[in-house]
Amino acid sequence: MSATDGLNADQRLALESLLRSLADDEYVLAERYIEWQVYAPTLESDLALSNIAQDEVGHARLWYDLLMDLGYDETDLLWERDPETFRHATLAELPFAEGDWADAVVRSYLYDVAEDLRLEALEDSTYPGIADRVGKIRSEEDYHLEHAQNWLERLAEGEEGRERLQTAVDRLFPHALTLFEPASPVAIDGDEPDDLPSAAELEEAIVAEGYRTETLAELGERWAERVVPYLESLDLVTPIPEDGEITDDLLPEERGRDGRHTDAWFDLYDDFTHTYRELGRTEATTIMEKPE
């Protein structure tokens, strides 16, 4: 019996929305991390970020596999998918500030804290496939967060490094807030957008069904309570006001979760699908069967 048996249309759509956000965040962020290979400031950091990118691809695969249980295949989820249907946060897609390691470090920290909180809210998911994967992912994400914090503290020791970190915080922080935006549904199999629930309705269903045990708004508040004091301890300033309220005017125009992306995303999509298109493929190739 499949884990998806017995799901009604609304439950399936809520589950699918959650999985798309999880998988797309990890995959697109990994694509960006790959750009740092051989360019990181030390051999150790080069190897570390390469390993982190590999981990993120693996995590994306775990979430995409659950979408495959819902009837999709790899071409649907990556290679032949309309780029506007990706539901990753814009933090994942932004190009790095050229040659600026601080940008990579700040991005990793902002994302990894959010990921830590998100995984915590998935540990007791009512959907077995999600709960079963959290332990493996979280053990690797702990290392990612430790790596980011070590570099943050190292760079913040010097005036130039701290200035670079501040520039990165100013640029990336608004996009990190998009991690806590609800994802709009993806129209599939002839569905008209008017027939689909809103992003807010999907988010409500995700929590009501127990697929995630906290709302995105709650996760965003906890993220700010953790991130802001830490960055301030490094003499860095964030745009969060003293009352800690996260309002819409703090976020960028493009939020990713609603299908609106920066121009950089479409360039990145063309890059990672280039080989597939150039070789004229119509299906994904594999070197081994999916494990049971």
Task: Give a quick precis of the structure.
This protein is mostly helical and 292 residues long. Helix content is 59%, strand content 0%.
Descriptive account of the structure:
By secondary structure, the chain is an all-alpha fold. 59% of the residues lie in helices and 0% in strands. The radius of gyration is 19 Å and the shape is globular. 35% of the residues are buried.
What key phrases describe this protein's structure?
single chain; 292 residues; mainly alpha
List the topology elements.
Elements: H1 9-34, H2 43-69, H3 74-79, H4 90-93, H5 101-120, H6 128-155, H7 159-176, H8 199-208, H9 216-233, H10 263-272, H11 274-278
Helix pairs in contact: 1-2, 1-8, 2-6, 5-6, 5-7, 5-9
